[in-house]
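Ops channel
N.P.: pipeline sanity check, posting one input/output pair.
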């Protein structure tokens, strides 16, 4: 396995999940009365026989305890009955999301090679989870399922190179703003002996905007060009938006403060306009607070 395999799996993960979801929905009875192990296991074994290359299939109860052997290629592991797997991702994600899920690749206890587990919650007629059906498949075989076709590859490369072009253009713009901010120190002779608030604010605004645009370009390159996974911190997948808007709010706040000082000295009658800008910044800040609050992942479900 190489790093590109993980990236290929990430790109084709939706396709692989759709494949397993189709297998489960087609073969496993769900939301029916009188569902039990005896009615579900034959359907699991049919899935195993149909696809031929799965490592094992097994069934967990709603508490995460394994209630069947692990049915492997040509044998079954009876000793697996009763093992608690409530701490495994394929169990708690299926329970939490109440839908078919697949895990990230992890070392198999049976083969020692990387494997991926697909899991499907099974509900009774009242909508309560009573079992979780699980299917293990070697990572290499999952890669074959998730492999993108020619149009997928073409559009993936097209978007990747397009993002790269825009990102490097943004880097160039941020560098121009950065050098403009630096040269303002020389042009306006900003020194401890020759110090004007207006000139300092203007340089600070340019540098702040340069930092915001550079940070946006950096995130695009990391996530869309290099394919690194997006982190799930307090702002979740909207981290880029939050950081960029935060930088813009800081820049506008500095501009508003500069106008307040300027109008207070030169033309107090114009102070009302600077207060409009302060009000706009406050509205942006409040909107950003609501944005973070309502797009933040639920920590109880993480």
């Amino acid at each position: 396995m190489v790093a590109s395999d993980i990236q290929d799996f990430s790109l084709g993960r939706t396709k692989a999940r759709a494949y397993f979801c189709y297998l489960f929905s087609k073969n496993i009875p769900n939301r029916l009365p009188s569902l039990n192990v005896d009615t579900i296991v034959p359907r699991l074994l049919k899935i195993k026989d149909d696809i031929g290359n799965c490592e094992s299939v097994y069934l967990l109860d709603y508490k995460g305890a394994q209630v069947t052997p692990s049915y492997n290629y040509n044998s079954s592991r009876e000793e697996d009955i009763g093992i608690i797997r409530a701490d495994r991702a394929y169990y708690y994600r299926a329970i939490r999301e109440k839908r078919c899920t697949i895990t990230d690749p992890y070392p198999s206890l049976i083969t020692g090679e990387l494997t991926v587990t697909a899991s499907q919650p099974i509900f009774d007629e009242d909508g309560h989870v009573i079992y979780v059906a699980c299917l293990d498949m070697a990572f290499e075989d999952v890669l074959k399922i998730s492999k993108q076709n020619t149009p997928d590859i073409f559009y993936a490369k097209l978007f990747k190179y397009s993002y790269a072009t825009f990102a490097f253009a943004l880097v160039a713009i941020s560098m121009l703003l950065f050098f403009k901010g630096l040269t303002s120190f020389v042009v306006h002779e900003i020194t401890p002996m020759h110090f004007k608030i207006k000139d300092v604010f203007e340089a600070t605004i340019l540098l702040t905007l340069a930092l915001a645009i550079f940070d946006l370009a950096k995130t695009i390159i990391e996530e869309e060009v290099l394919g690194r996974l997006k982190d799930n911190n307090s702002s979740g997948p909207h981290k880029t938006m939050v950081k960029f808007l935060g930088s813009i709010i800081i820049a506008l706040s500095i501009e508003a403060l500069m106008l307040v000082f300027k109008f207070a000295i030169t033309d107090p009658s114009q102070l009302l306009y600077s207060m409009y800008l302060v009000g706009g910044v406050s509205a942006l800040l409040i909107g950003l607070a609501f944005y973070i609050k309502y797009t933040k992942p639920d920590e109880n479900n993480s």
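N.P.: looks fine end to end. The first helix runs from residue 3 to 27.
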